[in-house]
Amino acid sequence: MPRASGRIKPRDRLGLNDPVEDEPQPDYGEGKEELTTGEQITAVRRDIYNTNEDTSDMLDAAIQTGANTNKQLVQQREKLRKARDDLDEVDENNMEAERQMNRLETCCCISLIIQCCCCCCIDNSPIKKKKKVVNNDKERDMKISKQEEERFQKRLHIAKTRKDVQEAQNKEGLTEEERHEEVHDKQLDLLSAQLAVLNDVAKDTSEELKYQKDVVMPDLRSAVGEQRGKIKDLDRRGQKVLRS
Length: 244
Fold this sequence. Notes:
Blueprint lengths: L9 H5 L22 H78 L22 H34 L5 H68 L1
Helix pairs in contact: 2-4, 3-4
């Protein structure tokens, strides 16, 4: 817009004062009707209901994730158990190899003295087999089986409380306030039941990890180390016999 002197302002020249059609104008609440008290209460109740539903959905997802994790941990323990059982078979083979090595060493010692290898037919008394290490897997499995029954009952309780929420929503003869209070109470019961199951799932995860860390893995590492030592010893003795 030209000034009184006839000159155009710089902002007018750049078009900065021109109205922008697409630019949203601030809403100062003019012309907007305020909610009545009843509408505000209804809106708050709706928010409470939706929040409870969202929380319930998140708990369901967390429970499912935890259950899948525990299932994978059990499968991992089974693989570790299988590896431990395979090491028992390796131990038996190593003991047989040690028995044959004892015969070979005895034969070579005598042959050096009397230049006779007929002693190779001598069968030394077999090495006594060690008793297999008995771990607490059976005790652990029995505990899990017992807990699984308790978990199943708690999941049934979740299903029942979820059904109670639906029934409260459709219950006839209730005012809006009474319906809200009853549905809210049932939702809280549902959340409580879900939290109880989630707590059990987290506890199972913790116990399984601790069991594998404190029992399964140390036993497996010990067995692997023992068999590695036996194999190295047999190799050393075999090399010595070949050089003699």
